[in-house]
Amino acid sequence: MLNLDNILEKIKSDADNEAKSILDEAKEKYDEILKKAKAEAEKEFDASMARAKRDAEEHYRRLISMAQLDMRKEILTAKQELIDRAFKEAGDVLINMNKEDYVELLFKLLLKSELDGNVKIIFSKKDRENMPDFIERANEYLKLNNKQLTLNLSDESFEGDGGFILSSKGIEENYRIKTLIEEKREEIEPDVISILFE
């Protein structure tokens, strides 16, 4: 019986050793699989973080770019409003100057006319009422300056700003203050912009 006990003991010992060896090998494989999985997870995590960082940086750049564009638009709008106001104020100054200076301005504008002969002059309603002796004075001024032009007051008038319109034989010359300011604006606006904003 001793032999049988020894054999059983030996089988049990070999089985324990085999089981231990299988468990140790399984644990090694488990540790290796776990290590690889952890490394892959860290690698994927790092790649995801890098992508997220790139995406966030790109989103930030886009937001900054859009904010800068909006800011430029706002500045451009403010500059345009400033220029609009400056030209409007220039027109207001001309329309609201004292009567003698205003009449002198209108006389100088008459000298620019290329019309000759009998010409109708059309005023704004305000100027028509405020300058009853203008035609007589203007015709004298034109003769003194050798201009072959005789003014006749038109029955028509226009609303709004000052200045006048000359009309003869279907041809009109527009010397309204608003028109003159707009023409001058087209001519000098680039210079005004460079002076004000550079």
What tags apply to this protein structure?
198 residues; alpha+beta; hypothetical protein PF0899 fold; 73% helix; four-stranded mixed beta sheet; 5 helices
- Give the proportion of residues in helices: over 70%
> Overall mean pLDDT score?
87
SSE pattern, N- to C-terminal: HHEHHEEEH
Instruction: Identify the overall geometry.
Output: rod-shaped
CATH first level of the largest domain: which class? Alpha Beta
Beta-strand fraction estimate: 15-25%
**Counted beta strands:** 4
In CATH terms, the superfamily of the largest domain is ATP synthase, E subunit, C-terminal
| CATH fold topology of the largest domain | hypothetical protein PF0899 fold
Corresponding CATH architecture of the largest domain:
2-Layer Sandwich
> Nearest-angstrom radius of gyration?
47 Å
Characterization of this structure:
There is one protein chain. The protein has a four-stranded mixed sheet. The protein has two domains: 96 residues; 100 residues, ATP synthase, E subunit, C-terminal (hypothetical protein PF0899 fold), CATH 3.30.2320.30. With 198 residues, the chain is an alpha+beta fold. Strand 3 and strand 4 form a beta hairpin. 73% of the residues lie in helices and 15% in strands.
